[in-house]
Amino acid sequence: MSIVGQRLLLRAEKRDTDAEDLFRWLQLEEWQYYDEPHQPFQPISREDFDRRQQRPKPPQSSSARWQIDTLEGRHIGWVVYYGLDALARTAYVGIDLPEPETWGRGYGTEALRLLVDHLFRDMGLEAVRLATWTGNRRMMRCAEKCGFKEAARLPHYADCSVRGEPLERVEFALRRSEWLR
User: Fold this and answer.
1) What digits encode the pLDDT tens for the residues 39-81?
2) Angle 137-145/107-117 helices, nearest 10 degrees?
3) Are strands 90-96 and 127-133 parallel, antiparallel or unpaired?
4) E strand or H helix that includes residue 59
5) Given 14, 33, 127, 176, which is the most exposed site by the fewest CB atoms within 10 A?
6) Is residue 78 within 8 Å of 64, Cβ to Cβ?
7) Can you give the pTM of this predicted structure?
8) Alpha helices in 10-165 (DSSP H)
9) In terms of Cα–Cα distance, which of 88, 99, 149, 89 is closest to 123?
């Protein structure tokens, strides 16, 4: 399955080159700081990466990942929904654009909008949530541009600060009725 936007394509199908891109991205510290700031950065060795790639992955009905490509075919990251609650018809979403040269260009906003639209229109969800932390200002702006509203601010689960910033967890929510206006 693919979802096509104005500048991006979200694809569920994997390409042979995706693993090489992921390995390269796992060597970059900055994006991982924004993704999981409480985890110390540790680049992965080629051997460990290959071993992880070989492990069978159990099918998960509560999550799905789409790779993000530009319409020109450049693989730039991924979006995911997770924690799907079929009864409540809700899920969380996330996005990763590991390369700094892709930041601030609207790619994240477009990719997130494409995924959210799919979740509401095609999957019939009633609400979509997003969780980040106060230091991830780009993600917070992206969420707000997509129509998400801050729903909660909680002390982060890590007992430390990173780069001098407190780790407060921020949760955003967007309802189907707000999206489909």
Assistant:
1) 777 888 889 888 888 887 766 678 999 999 999 999 999 999 9
2) 50
3) parallel
4) none
5) 14
6) no
7) 0.88
8) 18-25, 29-35, 46-54, 107-117, 137-145
9) 89
Distance CA 100, CA 96 (A): 11
- Distance (Å, rounded) from C-alpha 79 to C-alpha 8? 12
Token digits for 96?
């990763």
Using the predicted structure, report yes or no on whether residue 138 has a pLDDT greater than 60.
Answer: yes
The Cα 168–Cα 152 span in angstroms is 10
Token reading at 137: 């200002």
Token digits of residue 87: 């009864």
What digits encode the pLDDT tens for the residues 139-178?
A: 999 999 999 999 999 876 555 566 666 678 899 999 999 9
Tokens found for residue 149:
């509203």
| Residue that has been written with the tokens 């900055």 in this structure | 30
Helices (H), 43-145: 46-54, 107-117, 137-145
Tokens, residue 40: 């110390």
CB 132 within 8 A of CB 13: no
Judge whether residue 34 has pLDDT over 80: no
The whole-angstrom separation of Cα 85 and Cα 164 is: 35
Best CA proximity match to 96, nearest among 53, 51, 64, 66: 66
Question: Which amino acid is present at 170?
Answer: V
